[in-house]
Predict the structure.
Amino acid sequence: MADRKVRIATTSLAGCFGCHMSILDIDEALFDLLERVEFDRSPLTDIKHCGPCDLGIIEGGVCNAENVHVLKEFRRNCKVLVALGACAISGGIPAMRNNIPLRACFQEVYEYEPGTLGHHLPNDPELPLPFDKVHPINEVVHVDYFLPGCPPPAEAILRFVGDLLAGRTPAIDPHLLHYD
Amino acid sequence: MSAKTFLLDGQPVSFVDGQTIMDAALAAGVYIPHLCHLPGYRPQGSCKLCTVDIGGRRGAACTNAAVENVDVKCETQELNADRRSLLQMLFVEGNHFCPSCEKSGNCALQAVAYRVGMRDPHFPHFYPAHDMDASHPEVLLDRNRCILCELCVRASRDVDGKNVFAISGRGMRARLIVNASSGRLADTPLAAGDRAMTVCPTGALLTKRQGFSVPIGRRTYDLKPIGTTAPARETQHG
């Protein structure tokens, strides 16, 4: 392990990138971390597909078909998969649309909203089809660890990843465990 | 007369005849996790969080009478694991989106979940679509956060004398209803100052225009995790 850097992939599915911002919020500890790890596919790198990794960190729930493809790619390639933040864990705020029919959501935004041009729903096959409900990621793939918060505090993320790098079961200090 | 005692996790707790394990423990300043219980109210026994080991058998601390010299265990790994499962069930049954809930930080459901270290919902989410009632000028009822503890039912009936709430429906369809022919809160005598408004352990019953008024870090359970006494350091915040 000493010779090889630990490989980490990260992604945001139906997320807001806030969990990634919280990762960056470990500030200068990032420099120490980068001595020990290297990043595979991530919004912070230019790698297009996830290769074999030790750790995958997922932010955001699953709201469309592309999310599922990405999530399954991560699960195939990552030895350990972590659900980071409220969205990955419970669907989060985006799952508040689960009680509104999908068509009604789309019509409100693309047809009825003043100023929308064309008055039709986007239907290009390039676009991933949305699901009728937003799901937590553990309803699609097996998840090894969950780190709650919206977003989880940087201190919790640092400690969590540190534990994983050290081969320990990741701990969450009680004062860093929160869902909001 | 020497006081009768039982053992709670090895510590003697004194009680008087007829007192429940829960009431004796709370009176002695010892916390047993609970949601549907409130001192002074008739025990409900629906949340099951206060399940303890009573001399080798399991029972709800809030409904079982204290018995002299009996050995009660509460803070065991096994019981706390079961509490975690119960809380996971409560979380997936409702729409507990804490990040946008006004009760976050002041919510007993959330605070107990923190206490037993719940990290994930484990079970598939129900995403229920119960009706919300915003008809009342001062009060909001979001049934998707209701855990059916019936504290508002008991408070409104027994303390406020208004009998505004009830539980209706069976099994999974059970829900909180409002005792008005219209079914709306606006058509009841409920007032924001009623006791029923202060007993809700979740964000189901909220007073309007009061949300997000306490800074993060100073909310009830930011200062003092549920079931702990505030160390001097923490009492200086607010």
